[in-house]
């Protein structure tokens, strides 16, 4: 299966600066093996010695986090897109703590995934809860101020209530 892997800026030095890489494999593990055979340092940059994804990355197949979807055994189909989201670890220009309140149908939308994919920021969920059709997400978001402002405008357009905690 041919898939596309979206490479975050922190891993692009291993891919010659390329943002999107085509890989082959029937599972996430096979796609990673393909990447490791073509790019020196890939395996050690994103995987622990145990073979697990390093704790400061989340990896999505399309819009589903592999941690809740089968891990490295997650099956792939032609055209799938794998997206890395680095977890906030500092070093960004600005960091904001937010409390999001999501109502109705948006409760089941992959909001955090969309933020990480669409904007040049690092979202980090610190806690989340869904009850009675209302979702509450406590998160930190790091990045350039103007990019964070774009995220806030996106959330406003989706009618997601945002409280600034810092």
Written description of the protein model:
Helix content is 22%, strand content 35%. It is built from four helices and nine strands. The mean pLDDT is 86.
Keywords:
5-stranded mixed beta sheet, 4 helices, 166 residues, 4-stranded antiparallel beta sheet, 2 domains, 35% strand, Ubiquitin-like (UB roll), 22% helix, single chain, Alpha-Beta Plaits, alpha+beta
Compile the SSE list and pairings.
Layout lengths: L1 E5 L13 E5 L3 H11 L3 H5 L10 E5 L2 E2 L15 E6 L7 E10 L7 H8 L2 E11 L2 E10 L1 H13 L3 E4 L2
Parallel strand pairs: 1-5
Antiparallel strand pairs: 1-2, 3-4, 3-5, 6-8, 6-9, 7-8
Q: Note the overall shape.
A: globular
Order of strands, widest sheet: 2-1-5-3-4
Class derived from helix and strand content = alpha+beta
Order of helices and strands: EEHHEEEEHEEHE
Please identify, by name, the CATH architecture of the largest domain. Answer: Roll
Radius of gyration, rounded? 17 Å
Using DSSP, what is the number of strands? 9
pLDDT < 50 stretches: none
**End-to-end span in angstroms?**
45 Å
Hey, roughly how much beta strand do the residues contain?
25-35%
The CATH homologous superfamily of the largest domain is called Beta-grasp domain
Number of domains: 2
Compute the average pLDDT: 86
Helix content: 10-25%
Task: Give a short overview.
With 166 residues, the protein is α+β, with helices and mostly antiparallel strands. The protein contains four helices and nine strands. The model has no long low-confidence stretch (mean pLDDT 86).
């Amino acid at each position: 299966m041919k898939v596309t892997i979206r490479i975050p800026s922190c891993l692009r030095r291993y891919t010659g600066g390329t943002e999107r890489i085509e890989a082959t494999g029937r599972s996430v593990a096979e796609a990673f093996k393909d990447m490791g055979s073509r790019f020196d340092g890939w395996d050690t940059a994103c995987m622990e010695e145990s073979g697990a994804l390093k704790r400061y990355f989340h990896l999505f197949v399309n819009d589903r986090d592999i941690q809740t979807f089968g891990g490295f055994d997650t099956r792939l189909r032609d055209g799938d897109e794998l997206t890395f989201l680095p977890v906030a670890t500092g070093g960004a220009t600005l960091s904001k703590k937010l409390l999001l309140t999501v109502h109705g149908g948006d409760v089941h939308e992959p909001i955090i995934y969309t933020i990480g994919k669409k904007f040049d920021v690092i979202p980090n969920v610190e806690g989340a809860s869904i009850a009675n059709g209302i979702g509450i997400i406590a998160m930190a978001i790091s990045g350039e101020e103007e990019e964070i402002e774009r995220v806030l405008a996106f959330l406003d357009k989706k009618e997601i209530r945002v409280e600034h905690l810092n």
